[in-house]
């Protein structure tokens, strides 16, 4: 990566585009040729305050901007924060970020590559955000970093400096942290800002990575990963709030797909594969075209997005069609997974965090999609949880016992698989906080099963599994305030549901949940400890014929 020019005689636009500036005043030759406003920031080394200008003539700022109005901060405040001791980097906080957050949200430069550029001005806001997120996993959250970030965001909103892709990365990651620090509305607003800013920069287009990659394959890969993290994060929030379609659903995306995590970490970036390559993967020969775990997560998310595009509906026929489309999409995705992606545990004993999240999403959506058509009844107390979906319309009632039992089997099988995922030898604190709402929704459905379906030994076993999910929520709540709130909400729901005494009729006694033929979900053959070659998605050969 070429060092970023910081000459005091270079104008802001040339600095931003890494062009050599001739320093001519009042406007350099490049700005004159491009018919753009030419601004020369005053040197900080002379101790003068940085001037605040009107919005720059930049494609990322304008009247149509969706960025929220900024609270005006005095220029001297911003200048002081962007210089001196405020730019000290705490390596411990960087370590915590990469240990607990990066693997599940891998868009910024790998640690070794980031270390080479920590003192560059273009990365200041990003490094502050990284350190702030790292502080969430420390003994105390950094108030100073929060202040620095807030003031830097004011500067971007005010248009007093040109925003870069690094600023977009910072806003994206900060929106996730803010959301799960129990400021969901603020976090969502920040995500909206970041998406709009990314669009104005053109980060959704393939060309952006090359134009702004500085001839560095690792940086180009980082830009590709940034837009896809936008997309996946947007999908996570849509899933957590049960709002479809996504914000990014109708955006034209031409960005190539990410490579494997190990390749990114080592800096060995292969030629990028396109979305078109992925969409035609079923026609390639075995092992001819392999896709990364990140690409597979993106592929699953795109399939779910297409299936759920109609959104919430009380029309049972439309809902059944949407449900069938989701099943088809997810089953196709699963069927095309290579063996290496079905084994979550790598040869070195580490867990593939991206594929872990992908499978978690798959099972969670299975529960959410099929529960309205199943016999897993809804209780009014579920409204206590902000993660829980609204109770379905009374019109969504399956005709026939076999049909509703089939949907119930799919729900229970998915619940079972979520429990198995949570028993893997993973670092719970390193999972994405978006798993919190997924676990909450699956647990609520499981509580309904305990209340209305399960009996005897299966009920006893399920109660232990609910302890597992509650324990996981409790662990995740140690660092995420919204997780703590969710843990309390699910506890309230559980106490209410499990304290009831009357039990409606159960499913027919010949229904075998543990051996249902669901190639996405049946993991009853799983035994601990897990072998390194264990196929986490092995389908069974049994049939649903008795339920048809």
Report the structural category. Answer: mainly alpha
Low-confidence stretches: 1-8, 42-80, 82-86, 501-548
| Radius of gyration from the alpha-carbon trace, in angstroms | 25 Å
Biggest β-sheet, characterized? none
> Could you give the count of β-strands?
0
**CA-based shape:** globular
The share of residues in extended strands comes to under 5%
Pfam family, one: Fungal_trans
Protein name: Putative fungal-specific transcription factor
InterPro entries: XnlR_reg_dom, Zn2-C6_fun-type_DNA-bd_sf, Zn2Cys6_DnaBD
Keywords: DNA-binding, Metal-binding, Nucleus, Transcription, Transcription regulation
Features:
548 residues, Zn2-C6_fun-type_DNA-bd_sf, mainly alpha, DNA binding, 3 domains, CD2-Gal4, globular, single chain, 21 helices
Written overview of the protein:
The protein is mostly helical. The protein folds into three domains: 1-46, Zn(2)-C6 fungal-type DNA-binding domain (CD2-Gal4), CATH 4.10.240; 71-201, no CATH class; 338-547, no CATH class. The protein has 21 helices and no strands. It has helices at 12-17, 29-34, 75-81, 91-100, 111-115, 124-135, 143-158, 165-180, 184-201, 206-211, 217-241, 261-266, 275-279, 293-307, 316-335, 339-342, 353-370, 401-422, 435-452, 456-476, 481-498. Helix 6 runs antiparallel to helix 7 and helix 19 packs antiparallel against helix 20 (456-476). It is globular, with a radius of gyration of 25 Å. The protein starts with 11 loop residues before the first helix and ends in a 50-residue tail after the last helix. The model is unreliable at 1-8, 42-80, 82-86 and 501-548 (pLDDT under 50).
């Amino acid at each position: 990566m070429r060092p970023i020019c910081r000459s005091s005689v270079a104008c802001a636009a040339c600095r931003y585009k890494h062009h050599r500036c001739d320093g001519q005043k009042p406007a350099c030759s490049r700005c004159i040729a491009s018919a753009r406003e030419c601004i020369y920031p005053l040197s900080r080394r002379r101790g003068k305050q940085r001037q605040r200008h009107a919005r720059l003539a930049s494609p990322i700022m304008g009247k149509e901007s969706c960025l929220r109005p900024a609270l005006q901060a005095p220029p001297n405040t911003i200048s002081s924060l962007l210089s001196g001791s405020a730019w000290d980097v705490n390596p411990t906080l960087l370590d915590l970020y990469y240990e607990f957050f990066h693997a599940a949200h891998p868009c910024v430069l790998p640690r070794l590559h980031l270390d080479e550029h920590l003192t560059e001005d273009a990365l200041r806001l990003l490094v502050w955000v990284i350190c702030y997120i790292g502080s969430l996993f420390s003994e105390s959250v950094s108030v100073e970093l929060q202040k620095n970030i807030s003031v830097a965001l004011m500067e971007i909103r005010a248009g007093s400096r040109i925003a870069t892709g690094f600023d977009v990365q910072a806003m994206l990651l900060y929106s996730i942290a803010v959301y799960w620090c129990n400021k969901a509305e603020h976090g969502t607003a920040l995500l909206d800002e970041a998406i709009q800013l990314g669009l104005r920069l053109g980060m959704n287009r393939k060309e952006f990575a090359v134009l702004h990659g500085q001839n560095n394959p690792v940086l180009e890969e980082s830009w590709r990963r940034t837009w896809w993290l936008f997309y996946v994060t947007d999908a996570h929030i849509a899933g957590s709030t049960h709002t479809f379609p996504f914000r990014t659903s109708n955006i034209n995306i031409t960005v190539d797909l990410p490579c494997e995590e190990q390749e990114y970490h080592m800096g060995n970036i292969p030629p990028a594969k396109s979305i078109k390559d992925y969409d035609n993967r079923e026609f390639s020969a075995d092992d001819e075209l392999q896709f990364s775990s990140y690409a597979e997560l993106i592929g699953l998310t795109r399939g779910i997005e297409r299936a759920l595009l109609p959104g919430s509906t009380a029309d049972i026929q439309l809902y059944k069609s949407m449900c069938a489309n989701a099943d088809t999409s997810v089953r196709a995705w699963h069927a095309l997974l290579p063996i290496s992606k079905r084994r979550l545990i790598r040869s070195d004993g580490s867990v593939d965090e991206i594929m872990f999240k992908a499978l978690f999403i798959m099972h969670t959506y299975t529960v959410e999609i099929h529960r309205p058509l199943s016999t897993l009844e809804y209780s009014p107390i579920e409204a206590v949880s902000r993660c829980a979906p609204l109770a379905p319309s009374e019109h969504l009632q399956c005709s026939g016992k076999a049909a509703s039992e089939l949907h119930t089997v799919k729900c229970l099988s998915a619940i079972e698989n979520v429990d198995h995922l949570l028993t893997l030898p993973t670092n719970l604190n390193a999972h994405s906080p978006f798993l919190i709402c997924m676990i909450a929704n699956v647990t609520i459905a499981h509580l309904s099963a305990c209340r209305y379906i399960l009996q005897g030994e299966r009920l006893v076993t399920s109660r232990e599994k609910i302890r597992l999910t509650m324990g996981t929520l409790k662990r995740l709540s140690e660092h995420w305030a919204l997780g703590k709130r969710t843990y309390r909400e699910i506890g309230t729901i559980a106490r209410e549901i499990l304290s009831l005494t009357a039990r409606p009729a159960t499913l027919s006694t010949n229904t075998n949940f543990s051996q249902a033929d669901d190639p996405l979900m049946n993991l009853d053959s799983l035994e601990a400890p897990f072998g390194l070659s264990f196929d986490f998605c092995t389908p069974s050969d049994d049939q649903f014929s008795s339920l048809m």
